[in-house]
Design a protein that fits this description.
Blueprint lengths: L5 E5 L2 E6 L2 H27 L4 H8 L5
Antiparallel strand pairs: 1-2
Length: 64
Amino acid sequence: SIGAPVFLTKNGRGRYAILDIQDYEKTEATLHLMNELEKGRKSGEVNGWLSLEDVEKKLGVNNE
């Protein structure tokens, strides 16, 4: 079907996948985001978490 990935095998085992470039780019962006979130989580555990007030100050947000 249109947009579905095509899987190629070698010796009966999955070897390659051909997919739409937009699907590939979306997957790459998702993996990048997940990696950045994991780095942030680890940083929070090692260095401590920021309070809501500190985040608002860093972002220049005024919620008064």
